[in-house]
Specification:
Elements lengths: L1 E3 L6 H4 L6 H25 L2 H27 L14 H29 L6 H23 L6 H30 L3 H29 L9 H9 L4 E11 L5 E9 L3 H4 L1 H16 L6 E7 L1 H5 L3 H4 L2
Parallel strand pairs: 3-4
Antiparallel strand pairs: 1-4, 2-3
Helix pairs in contact: 2-3, 2-5, 3-4, 3-6, 3-7, 4-6, 4-7, 5-6, 6-7
C-alpha cells in the first residue's frame, strides 16, 4: 500500500513558480546598459577595478539572460514525459551563474595581486564618473529584484549578481576618490581584490546549495534520523527503510519511505490508519513542508524479499 500525491503531470501539484519575467527583463536591460558604459570606461581609464566590474557586469548580464530564459521555461506546464515540467531549470541556471561569478572573482584576485606590484596610471575623474553610473543603475536593478529575491534559486542568483555588481561599482568609486586625493594608484588594485572577496564566497555558497539539490541531498532543515524516529514511535510500525528526501526545485521537497507494519494491519483496517498517521506525523513535526510525500506500507515478509540494494538507506 503506497500513498502520497499522484506524481503525474497535474500542474496544481508541482506548484506555480511565479512569473518574474518582467522584473528580469528590466534588470537585464539595465545591466546590459552598464556593460556598454563600463566597457567604454575601462578602455578610457585602464582601471582594473572598472575592468573587473565590467567583466562582472558582463557575467551579470549573461546570468540575468539565463535567469530570464529559465523563468520562461519554468512556466511551461508539466506533462506525462516531464512530470515536474522544467522546474529544476532554476537550479541549473543558478549553478551556471555561480560558476561564472567564481571565474570572474578568481580573475580579479589574480590580476589585482599583479597590479599591486605594477600599478598603472588611472585617471581618477573618469573612473569616478563611470563608477557612479554603474552604482546608480545597479541600485535601480536591486530595487526591482529585491522583493522577489527569495522566490527561488533562480531569482536569488539574479539578485546576488546585481548586488555584487553594485558593490563592485562602490569599490570603483572609493578607488577613484583615494586616487584623486592621495595619488595612491594601488587603490585600484585593492578595490579589484575587494570586489573579488565579495564575489567568491557568495558564489561558492550558491554553487554548493544548487549542487546539493542536483545531487538530491536531503533538504536543509530536514533531519531524516528524526523523521525515522517519529515514524517508528507510531502504533503498529515495526520498521522504516528506504527513507529518502530530496528537493526538485524551490518549494518542492519530496519524501519517500517504506513503512513495515504488523501483518494483521492488512486485515483489521489499521494499514490505512497507519498510513494516515505517518503522513500527519511528518506534516506536524517537521518545519520543512513535504507536499509530495509517498509512503509504502508493507509487511515484514514483503520487506525481507525486497532486493538488498533497494533497502539500503
Amino acid at each position: 500500500m503506497g500513498a502520497g500525491h499522484n506524481h503525474g503531470p497535474d500542474p496544481s501539484e508541482t506548484g506555480h513558480p511565479g512569473d518574474f519575467r518582467k522584473k528580469l527583463w528590466i534588470a537585464f536591460s539595465i545591466t546590459a546598459t552598464i556593460v556598454v558604459a563600463q566597457a567604454v570606461g575601462s578602455i578610457v581609464t585602464g582601471s582594473l577595478a572598472l575592468l573587473t566590474d565590467t567583466a562582472h557586469a558582463i557575467t551579470d548580464a549573461s546570468g540575468l539572460l539565463v535567469a530570464l530564459i529559465a523563468a520562461t521555461l519554468m512556466l511551461k506546464p508539466a506533462n506525462s514525459k516531464r512530470t515536474w515540467g522544467f522546474r529544476r531549470i532554476e537550479v541549473i541556471a543558478a549553478l551556471g551563474q555561480s560558476a561564472l561569478l567564481l571565474i570572474v572573482g578568481t580573475y580579479a584576485a589574480i590580476e589585482g595581486i599583479r597590479r599591486l606590484f605594477e600599478p598603472p596610471e588611472v585617471p581618477a575623474t573618469e573612473l569616478l564618473f563611470f563608477g557612479i553610473v554603474g552604482l546608480v543603475a545597479n541600485i535601480i536593478a536591486i530595487t526591482i529584484l529585491a522583493s522577489s529575491r527569495g522566490a527561488n534559486f533562480n531569482m536569488r542568483a539574479a539578485f546576488l549578481e546585481v548586488l555584487n555588481d553594485a558593490l563592485g561599482s562602490l569599490g570603483v568609486i572609493i578607488a577613484a576618490i583615494v586616487i584623486a586625493t592621495t595619488g595612491f594608484m594601488q587603490a585600484d588594485a585593492i578595490a579589484g581584490l575587494l570586489i573579488a572577496a565579495l564575489i567568491v564566497p557568495r558564489a561558492f555558497k550558491l554553487m554548493r546549495e544548487t549542487a546539493g539539490v542536483l545531487m538530491e541531498f536531503t533538504p536543509q532543515g530536514l533531519d531524516l534520523d528524526e523523521v525515522r524516529k517519529h515514524i517508528l514511535a507510531l502504533d503498529h510500525v515495526k520498521d522504516v527503510h528506504d527513507l529518502h528526501a530530496s528537493t526538485v526545485a524551490t518549494g518542492l521537497p519530496t519524501l519517500t519511505a517504506h513503512v513495515v507494519v504488523d501483518d494483521e494491519c492488512f486485515t483489521d483496517g489499521h494499514a490505512a490508519e497507519t498510513l494516515r498517521a505517518v503522513k500527519d506525523c511528518v506534516a506536524e513535526h517537521f518545519e520543512v513542508s513535504v507536499p509530495h510525500s509517498t509512503f509504502q506500507i508493507e509487511t515484514e515478509d514483503i520487506a525481507e524479499h525486497e532486493p538488498t540494494i533497494a533497502k539500503h538507506d
